[in-house]
Design goal:
Blueprint lengths: L13 H10 L1 H18 L4 H9 L3 E3 L2 E3 L1 H27 L4 H15 L9 H29 L5 H29 L1 H20 L23
Antiparallel strand pairs: 1-2
Helix pairs in contact: 2-7, 2-8, 4-6, 5-6, 5-8, 7-8
């Protein structure tokens, strides 16, 4: 994260920060996008897990018995292994790409991954969905925190980061409240809704949903930076 500046008594507190955030259209777009993508991300530990349990039977592989819960752990481990082995090389490859485009493509990747489950419900489908999801996660979250920092005034980065955490929590709460009920009605409706939310978040990040031109982040804010929410 870039080094910030110490605030003054006149600029401290949330009142001044919220007034600044209201005037910061690119940051408001990022906060709205965080709400949408956090709903998508939350599916990984709610409807994705439930659908796996309902769809994937136990596996007998050369005499070894694997219960559905063990297979789900393997699928989740793929996510962690890919991030450990591939995130840094992927970040190096995409470093020169426009940051908003990277985040937008990551959002679309995460959301589209759930659409795979509409065409198949076997172990292979879940593995493919996880691979696509993880690539999107690495694309988006390796750049998102640095982008957020570049939009914040130097003396308000902590409060701007806190506002994004609130937006992320709002999405998590919304997902927990509505997604499971929607899944009981139709799993495919959940996957389609995830795609819509991911594309909406991508459009917000890319600046397509705005009547006014959004300024580019300060180039200096991206020197040797990476991170995620």
């Amino acid at each position: 994260m870039p080094k910030g500046n110490r605030g003054t008594r006149q600029t401290s507190g949330w009142g001044h920060a919220l007034a600044s955030i209201r005037r910061n259209r690119p940051f408001l777009a990022l906060a709205a996008a965080c709400v949408t993508i956090s709903i998508v991300f939350r599916q990984l530990t709610t409807t994705f897990a439930l659908h796996f349990e309902n769809s994937v039977p136990a596996l007998d592989w050369h005499g070894f018995q694997f219960k559905p819960l063990e297979l789900y752990g393997f699928v989740m481990a793929v996510n962690g292994m890919m991030i450990c082995l591939m995130e840094m090389p992927l970040t190096a490859v995409t470093r020169a790409w426009p940051v908003r485009n990277c985040i937008a493509m990551g959002y679309i990747g995460m959301s589209v991954s759930f659409l795979v489950l509409s065409f198949g419900a076997g172990l292979g489908a879940f593995l493919l969905a996880m691979v696509v999801f993880t690539f999107g996660e690495m694309m988006a979250f390796s750049r998102q925190q640095a982008y957020a920092a570049s939009l914040a005034p130097d003396d308000m980065r902590g409060r701007y980061s806190g506002f994004l955490s609130w937006a992320w929590s709002l999405g998590n709460i919304s997902a927990s409240a509505f997604s499971l009920g929607m899944y009981q009605y139709s799993p495919n409706l959940v996957w389609l809704s995830s795609v819509v939310l991911g594309v909406l978040g991508a459009l917000l990040i890319a600046g397509r949903i705005s009547a006014r031109c959004q300024p580019q982040p300060r180039p200096s804010a991206f020197r040797s930076q990476r991170g995620g929410l």
